Amino acid sequence: xxxxxxxxxxxxxxxxxxxxxxxxxxxxxxxxxxxxxxxxxxxxxxxxxxxxxxxxxxxxxxxxxxxxxxxxxxxxxxxxxxxxxxxxxxxxxxxxxxxxxxxxxxxxxxxxxxxxxxxxxxxxxxxxxxxxxxxxxxxxxxxxxxxxxxxxxxxxxxxxxxxxxxxxxxxxxxxxxxxxxxxxxxxxxxxxxxxxxxxxxxxxxxxxxxxxxxxxxxxxxxxxxxxxxxxxxxxxxxxxxxxxxxxxxxxxxxxxxxxxxxxxxxxxxxxxxxxxxxxxxxxxxxxxxxxxxxxxxxxxxxxxxxxxxxxxxxxxxxxxxxxxxxxxxxxxxxxxxxxxxxxxxxx
Length: 347
Prior knowledge:
It is a single chain. This protein is α/β, with parallel strands linked by helices and 347 residues long. The protein has four domains: 1-68, no CATH class; 71-147, no CATH class; 149-274, Rossmann fold; 284-342, CATH 2.40.50.140. It is 57% helix and 16% strand. The protein is built from 13 helices and ten strands. It has helices spanning 2-25, 35-68, 71-96, 102-124, 126-133, 139-147, 155-160, 162-169, 180-190, 195-214, 232-243, 252-260, 268-274; strands at residues 151-153, 176-179, 219-222, 246-249, 265-267, 284-292, 299-302, 308-311, 321-332, 335-342. The strands form two sheets. A five-stranded parallel beta sheet has the order 3-2-1-4-5. Strands 6-7-8-10-9 form a five-stranded mixed β-barrel. Helix 1 packs across helix 2 (35-68).
C-alpha cells in the first residue's frame, strides 16, 4: 500500500513537471491564464490515477519473472546484455556520421539489436559459456553449485498437485527440476486407455502448467537422463545422487528406496502431517458430523486439513455442526485422529 502511494506521488510530480515544461514552451495568447499551470495540474492528476497501472503492475510482473528464472540463466543474461551494450556503443559512433535520419535512428537500433542478441546468445549457450570461463565457475563447478539447492519432482507429486500450492508460498527456495523422462511418463499416463489413469495424467499436465505460471520458485525442464536405467524411480534416485539434490515425492516406495541410498527426500504427505493443527485434551472446537462411526452411536467429522474427528454419541447430529470437546488424539500411519465428545454431554 505504501509503495502504491509513493508511486502515485512520484508519478504525479514527474508528469506535473513535464506538463509545466510543455506549457512553458507552447504559447497560446488567446487563453486568459498561462498554459503551464493547467498542463501541470492535468499531468499531476494523470500521474495520481495511472502511475500504479503503468509502472506498478509491470514491476510486479518483472519481479515475479526474475524470481522464477534460475540464477544461472540470470547471470548469463546479464553478462550477455553487457557484452551486447559494449558492442552497440562501439558501433554507434560510426553510425552517427551517416546522413539524417539514419545517423539519429541507427545507433538506437543497434543498441536494441546487439543487447537482444547478447542476451539470447548467452542464455541459449549458457552451458558452453560457463564452461569456457573455466576454474571454479566452469561447467562442473557451476553445475554443482547450481544444483545444491535444486529439488527433483517425481510423477506422483506433480499429479498430486499440492506442490503448486507450496511453491506459491515461497518455502521452496531452490530450482525445481523436472526431467524429461518424468514428462514422458506423464504423457504416457495421459494417453492411457484406462479412464482413471488418463485423468490422472491429464491432471499432472495441468498441474505442471499451473506450476510454470504461478510458482515463485524457478521451474526448469532438464534434459539430464540416466541411460543405463529404464525405471523412472531408479532414474530419479540415480540423478539425485549425481546432482547432490533432493527428491520431492509422496510415493511411499520411492521414499524408502531413496532413503536407503542416502538421497534426501521431501515427502508432501509428511509435510502435510507436520503442519496440521495440534489439539490437546479438553480443548473445544466446532465440527460438522458427516457420517456414522464404526462404534455404536459414534459420528465422524473432518477438520479443514483433513484430520478425522470421531465424536462419541454424535450419530444423531449427522448433517449438523456441533461444539465438541477433545478427549484424546491418536497418531496413525494414515495421519492424526482426534476423539471427542459433544460439549453438552453430561457424562
